[in-house]
Amino acid sequence: MSEKQDKATAYWKENVRYLFILLFIWFAVSYGAGILFKDALDTIKIGGFKLGFWFAQQGSIYVFVILIFVYVRLMNKLDKKYGYDE
Amino acid sequence: MSVQTWTYLLVGITFAIYIGIAIWSRAGSTKEFYVAGGGVSPLANGMATAADWMSAASFISMAGIISFAGYDGSVYLMGWTGGYVLLALLLAPYLRKFGKFTVPDFIGDRYYSKTARIVAVICALIVSFTYVAGQMRGVGVVFSRFLEVDINTGVIIGMIIVLFYAVLGGMKGITYTQVAQYCVLIFAFMVPAIFISIQMTGNPVPQLGMGATVNDGSGMFLLDKLDGLSTELGFAEYTSGSKSVIDVFAITFALMVGTAGLPHVIVRFFTVKRVKDARKSAGIALLLIAILYTTAPAVSVFAKTNLINTVSDKAYDSMPIWFKNWETTGLLAFDDKNNDGKIQYVADKEANELTIDNDIMVLANPEIADLPAWVIALVAAGGLAAALSTAAGLLLVISSSISHDLIKKVFKPNISDKGELWAARIAATVAVVIAGYFGINPPGFVAAVVALAFGLAAASFFPAIVLGIFYKKMNKEGAIAGMIVGIVSMLVYMMKFKFDMFGGGTAEDWWMGISPEGFGTVAMLLNFIVAVIVMQFTPEPPEDVQEIVEDIRIPSGAGEATGH
Predict the structure, then answer these.
(1) Which whole-number Å values give the CA distances from B66 to A39, B82, B328, B387, B517, in the listed order?
(2) pTM given for the model
(3) What pLDDT is attached to residue B289?
């Protein structure tokens, strides 16, 4: 395997690892906190919000936005590390 | 000035702006027509994507639906935003690197087959047409209530405006009008929300006001008060739903994956310069969308509380003027069943005397809260911006599917660039006319189908694209079989339970308790499974296709989008 290809494979592996971590969080806040464990979290109250309800209608959306910007940062760094930035 | 004058003024000004932009940014080549020349900045693309995405349904209907569904409405909030995470992480950067004009372009090249391309075109057309008809209807509703023209005239005016800038400007015109439309619609959504939040809770931030205490000196939390009012009238508690967990899960998933698979959203990422910009503009788009999507549930809570307080057990004769106004549109109806002259709004269908259309909650909200006339007019302009921007994006997908994917790539490969541009314009015109027809004569199924467009997108495109990027050995046989099984199973389930075909059935017969809206999740899984199984028994994709896959995984050297 050529050096160029090794580099591409290594880059791809790191990329996929980031995707797994970020998508795990994506799943945890929406399907986890907002749906599957909603009832349990609802016993906790922050201000007027029951926590599970808050995750379903507010919190998960904030986390989604943060996730994409974290991804943008991570990938820009990764591109630089492998010399793929332009 | 009266509401009417304000409305004419604001709608007139915004329309003049859209037309001005269309003339300034008309398309001269197919490249400009399909991908706006490929040099749109991430910020402009993010704004355009947000306007493209937020349709009449997001602006007019969503807060109302949540008002009546309470927690169950969360499926739309999470579903329509979470899809952007999938889009940003799994699709946008790679499709941008691939660098073609349309989604069927990717499917056709990646799966080296005309059949795959044609299947993708058909899926794109089914999804886009069902969606666009709903937008034209939204335009009609806004016109008929606020400008007091006939609903059909409203649809025709909307058609002419969209026709003008979509046909003339193509993607370039659409992009820059959408930037303007985003500004109009977000301003129009936020102003009344902030007003009402201050009115009810004293907190100017609706997202916080929703969780604050009510302004009436009782010190009670707004959500607790609404829970109490709801149960008193026999409804489910607002903050807990009545849908099953599995169904909420399935619907949310189908909406997320469907969002990521909608062709009119995906093509927006072909318009930026670099892979980096595609990632960034997905983030900006979601941020801009989140402003509306986190405000909407707050509006739902304010509006529902206001509504119950205003009408419940009050005399019909004492109703404010907005009540009569909306009665004439047919979106609000009162039937004094027990002849006591009072409005009983309760969960029990036998005793309930008030029927309310979802859409009223946003459209009439400023009137219910007694806000100034210009705010009410602003909502009309915002609703129109939301509907028109989405309609234009969808029409572009329809016209490029026909002129580029069918005429250029399948039937007449040696057509000139000019010829193709004309074909695109003619296709866009025909599409507007068909969409307008459905807006004026909405077949009963349109409303039902709009929500299902997501299921169809989830069942067809999403697996084919994801496998195309992340699974190098996926071949054409697998992808085509997967898409066909996915979309057909979704269509069959939808027809059975929504239109009573194939023996029909009720909620009790739903497979594992999953509603047709959530079945997209199942159909998507079927697509994945069938694709992987079929692949095992058919030849590997050719060497050069596998090289394409390796190439799209590397962000550098994206070049510009091309048609060849």
Answers:
(1) 19, 17, 24, 19, 16
(2) 0.89
(3) 93
